[in-house]
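Async update (no meeting this week)

Hi team, since we skipped the sync, here's where things stand on the single-chain job. The sequence we agreed to prioritize is pasted below, unchanged from the tracker. I ran it this morning and attached the output directly underneath so nobody has to dig for it. Comments welcome in thread, and please keep replies under the output.
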Amino acid sequence: QVLLVESGGGLAQPGGSLSLSCAASTITFSNYHMGWYRRAPGKQRELVATITPSGSANYADSVKDRFTISRDNAKATVSLQLNSLKSEDTAVYYCHARHKIVTTTTYWGQGTQVTVSS
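Output:
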């Protein structure tokens, strides 16, 4: 069974940084688009960033120039570097995988909590 395991969440101060990681198992990782989503309390889940199998990245306007998504196909991991954190970034962050050809084949991680507070 496919498993996406996230790590790196925690508490940070406004202006601080955190690094999130997601490790995938039982899939051919290079065949999947990867992404990070987040859900803040009382709000709908939203897309944060995506990255194609070849490394092309896209970002939500709210995190552009502050967050960086990256992947290592050899290690089957996708990461999210969160810099210049704001209170509005507080949310549960989820790792997501979507097959590049069979696009209905998708997987979700369990989520990791990011809290930004002074």
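Quick observations from my side:
The two ends are 40 Å apart (CA to CA).
The chain has no helices and eleven strands.
Reply here if anything looks off.
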